[in-house]
Amino acid sequence: MIQCKEIQALEEKQLKSSIPEFSVGDTLNIHTRIIEGEKERIQLFTGTVIARKGGGLSETVSLYRVAYGAGIERVFSIHSPRIAKIEVARRGKVRKAKLYYLRGASGKKAKVQGRIGGKAVAVETNTTQIDDTTASS
Fold first, then answer.
1. Phi and psi torsions of 75, nearest 5°
2. Given Cys at both, which of 58, 99, 122, 126 links 50, Cβ 3.0 to 4.6 Å?
3. Residue 28 to residue 49: CA distance in whole angstroms
């Protein structure tokens, strides 16, 4: 019992509180910290959310995009310290919880119908900053 409480307290410390609300079908911009030798840089990955799994520290999101004719799917741990920032670029309107059918789709079948609105929220490990810019279309 004591170990459970200690683990829960440790997990609560590491959870990020400023993650924007997003769902399957939305297009996200995820800024990831990449360390190469002694240098650190930020890498941007933009893609459509095709799945969201787990909860707490183990929560993951799968993004999919087509680049140079090849489909790229990448899984991110939302509460990872390597994630610098998560932005919702576009809201999507879908009726399924998992969009795995987008992997093999092309043309109109690969499009996700849009919704209005979007927020950019900075996710920092030490300091929390919220950027309240709403996209107006």
1. -105, 130
2. 99
3. 7
